[in-house]
Amino acid sequence: MNELLLETRGLTKSYHHQNVVSDLAIKVPKNSVYGLLGANGAGKSTTLKMLTGIVAPTKGEILYQNQSWKRKDLSEIGALIESPPLYGNLTAKENLLVRTVTLGLPKERIEEVLKIVQLTDTGKKKARQFSMGMKQRLGIALALLNNPKLLILDEPTNGLDPIGIQDFRQLIRSFPEKGITVILSSHILSEIEQTVDKIGIISNGRLGYQGDLPKNTQALEELFLEIAKTYTEVGGF
User: Cα–Cα 20 to 30 A to 78, which of 5, 98, 138, 190?
Assistant: First the structure.
């Protein structure tokens, strides 16, 4: 069995006595791309926000490298949750410079991450003039500045055209060989199928399946629909 970089045990988040995520137990192998698959509103974003410390779990445990998750672990975690946090009036380099100064990171990382996400030739172009794909790439560059061991991406291909999605997929697949483990959430079956090594399927805040990808697209779709139906019938929120 592959060594785990991150694991959750009984992870639960409630709002107003209503569970949004219930007893989640995910296992993310080191140097892999783990896909968290689920329909809109399934609890994916809430789960990722707990993993990045944006919201606190109601109960349960998060283990990072076999130790209980602590705030200091954020120094090894990069994340892009929802929209990239960009300054529209600044260039790509200037956006990255703001982050390096804020976090006390070496400025040399700016050119390194721009090369990784293929944004080295944007020059004086302002971020507000970027395409959606370029903005997503810059968002990932920001998340990579601290040289993370874990990169967490929430619905990263939203708004991208087919070419942008293909380029983005290749970028994500390149991270494990650089020593970066990726957790990627999506509701798009084809995106998950072509990008990840392992999957977890979540429905109504519950993990209905975790493991290897089914053998083909049809099998994945059937599994996804079966889990969605099962967890709706047993008590949706």
Answer: 190
| Structural tokens at position 59 | 């109960």
Amino acid in position 183 = I
**Residue ranges with strand state E in the chain:** 4-15, 18-24, 27-29, 33-37, 59-64, 67-68, 77-80, 150-154, 181-186, 198-203, 206-212
pTM summary value = 0.90
Partnered with residue 80 across adjacent β-strands are: 153
Sign of CA dihedral 55, 58, 63, 69: positive
Tokens of 138: 């810059």
Residue pLDDT, tens place only, 116-151: 888 999 999 999 999 888 898 899 999 999 999 999
